[in-house]
Amino acid sequence: MILTGEPGCWIDVMRNVKTALCIKCGAEYEAGRETYTCAKCGGVMEIVYDYKFIKTQINREKLASSKELSMWRYMEFLPIEEGSRVGPMRSGWSPLYKADTLGEILGLKNLYVKDDGLNPTSSLKDRASAIAVTRALHAGNGTVACASTGNAASSLAGAAASLGLKSVIFVPERAPQAKQTQLLIFGATVISVRGDYGAAFRLSAQAIEKYGWDNRNAAINPYLSEGEKTVSMEIAEQLGFKSPDFVAVSVGDGCTIAGIWKGFKDFYAAGLIDKLPRLISVQAEGCCPVNRAIEQKNAAIEPMEENTIADSIAVGVPRNGEKALAAIRESNGIVVNVSDDEILAAMRLLGKSSGIFGEPAGVAGTAGLAKAAVRRDIPPDALVVSIVTGNGLKDTASAQRAAVQQNLIHIEPDMNLLAEELVRRGGIRH
Ligand SMILES: [Zn+2]
User: Fold this and answer.
1) Ligand 1 centre from 47 Cα, in Å?
2) How far is the CA of 28 from the centre of ligand 1 (A)?
3) Taking the CB of residue 56, how many other CB atoms lie within 10 A of it?
4) pTM here?
5) Mean pLDDT of successive 10-residue segments in the chain (430 residues)?
6) How far apart are CA 214 and CA 143, in angstroms?
């Protein structure tokens, strides 16, 4: 899809965007230039929109009648220059399920699950990558690069392939096999770095600087959480232009939860919803630097070890921590830390109650929600959305650990033996 103008006609105009603002010192920059961090203080930038202009372009009726069933239905809220070509991949517009069985178990009457594992490369990160490759192509850069715990990487590689761009991906060597395989299938050059995510990130930053590749590192590139925010816009629209009371999501680098908050704020500023939700920030007990800073009131984020099976959120030094903290604080959010056992239990719970298969980090939000519900932090009548951020097939080793092995019956193809086995087990287990 070409937005406006002719192919190859690069007009660097984003009428909907005002500036890029440093969240640390408040310095403003012209948006659209590939300035990722503040030249004055090194702070992370935020994209500021002209809501007055956006209001003249979009309203509930116009959105509701849109036939664009992807994140591009929210183009008025995205930092995409006129004349850009967006890829053919259908990122976004994932289903929002009313989860009655799960809600009954958790004591929540109005519970919904947003299954973002159903994106093209099976994670929410596809929303960010769609922006990254569109901007890279428009800027004339043929190679995109990033460091990632896995999902952002496979997502970037897939999105790049769909537009004929090359990708160079740095992953910590512990990244699950399925995610590394995904990268190779998408034709990426994969650099598996010995050490943790921090080590992969540092090496990628040096290489990007040296070789001039397009920098898709979410913490540095402020345009990416702008893609991730579309998940909130969809939730609000799918609920009939209503904001939930609570939104639960897992937190690693901080980019996703910051994007989620921005999406609701954008819709609110444009008059499309009339309130904002409270965020439930869920981290793993073995790696919870963002939540720990919130619990310690005004404390700064301190690095932590990366000790959890939820690899996508095993981020000891969150690169977008400041934005995450701001999102949780502004929304009067709740923080919940979950153990690996609770994450594995949530995988079973979601699968059994809703038919949704999430990876460990993907279901951590639901694990945290379950804990918050038990603590009675959430009123039973509240409108609640749990976002599943990645598909379970991305990490089958962890899924094997979560699976109920007793339900696996090995048997000869003989009906009498089957009947005997079922009697011996007292019927079919659930
Ligand atoms: Zn600054």
Assistant:
1) 13
2) 8
3) 10
4) 0.92
5) 37 80 91 79 91 96 96 96 90 98 98 98 96 91 87 92 95 85 94 90 93 82 92 98 98 94 98 98 95 90 89 85 94 97 96 96 97 96 98 90 86 94 80
6) 6
